[in-house]
Every structure is written in structure tokens, then in C-alpha cells.
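Q: C-alpha cells for this one, please.
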Amino acid sequence: MPRVSSSFSGNKNVNIPKVNKAVRNGAPVPIHPINNANQNNGTIKNKTAWERVSKRLQRTQSATAHLKDTPLAQLMHKNLDTLFEGKRHNLTVKEVFSKELLYSETAEGREAKQMLHRHGIQFIDYSYRYRMICVFQEQDGEEVLFFCMSVKEYRAQKWCSVDYLDSVSLYSGVVFRTKVYEELIYSYFEYARSIGYERVHIFVSALGENEEYFFHKRPTTMRLPEQPMLMIRQFFTEQLHF
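A: Here is the predicted structure, written as C-alpha cells:
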């Protein structure tokens, strides 16, 4: 599923749906810590280099082990467990970034402030929380990242926005990956509602030619839809009417 940004015919604000129940590929390219090892016939020449690589392997054996579980990640994981009806799914959900930001401290905000100043218009600053959620699946002992989602939360206005969704077709499991994506989105709605948010804004845009968002590369077998905007609109409309 491509990423998320412009909307169903313009940006669309909707009430956050109440979540009262959990709703129910290309060869993997694992995140591997060794990219350019100094090798000779499959062996690393320098012992010191090998020691460095070995330590690096130990540090990155689990790309997510050092990340603490947050309430949002725990809720998403719990709902995935329910979706899979107790079956092993090897999925790990991590909130890899969560921070309160001032708009004026971002590159976009600084640019906007300068532009308004040039035209004699007052710049009004505001704060929001930015979250980045990533989902991994263990495959052959490696953690494979296949889904990313970023959101912004505006507490004073009691609304939040789902800014970007991006995925690659590396997920493998007994449940269709679209169902997994849906469960993750529903789980965020449920979490946002639980901490006081009342509306969600979804920013939707199809990937253009040669455009990328979170994922720099995609499997050659990954098929993009012939009518991406139609597919994305349909997908998000379904999320808002479950």
C-alpha cells in the first residue's frame, strides 16, 4: 500500500471512529548489518575488522531490542495478537520516535516564518507531538521492516493527522497484509481516542513515478496499482466506515 498524503478530493477531516473490537509477497530483503565487509573467499581478512563486525552484529541482532514498549505499541501488538487468534506471527511493533515539537523549530516552520516576515504577516507558532511507528517481522532470524506510519497530534485542538503510511510487500503470514495494515490503523484510532482526541485528518496521495517516501527501495515483484488514487481513497474510506 502506498503512502498517505492530499485526500479524498481535498483534505478531509473526520470524526475518530469508536473502536469497540479488533477487526480481522517478493523475497524478503532483511536489514543486515554488514554491507561492505572486507572479504576474501568468504572470510574476513583482518582479525580486528572481524571483531568490529562481530560486535556490530551483536548490537544489531535485534534492531528493536533497545526500544522501549510504549502504550501505543503495546496496544497495537495486543490487537495484532487478537487478529491472529493467538497464532505466532513474529511481528514487532515499535514507536521509534515520539516527541513534542514546535512548528517554528522545524525546517518547514522556519521557512514559513521567514516568508511571512518578508510580507509583514505575523507568524503564529504552535506545538504538536510527532510519532513514528514501525512494524517488523522476524524472517529467518532477521527483523524485516515492512510498514511505517507517522502521525501528528494537536492536543489543544483535540485532533490528529495521519500524515504518511508506507509499506513494502515483504510481510509473510497467515493473515492478509491488508488486514494487518487495517488493524494497525484501527489501533491508532483507538489509542488517539483514549487520550482525548476527537477528530482525525488523513492526508492521502499516490506515489508518483520515481517517488519514494519511507522506503528507499522496493522489491521488483511489488506490483503498484494502475489507479493508485482510486485504490487509496477506497482503502481509507473503508477504514472510516468499519
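A few notes: The beta strands are 12-15, 39-40, 43-44, 91-102, 127-139, 142-154, 159-167, 199-202. The two ends are 19 Å apart (CA to CA).
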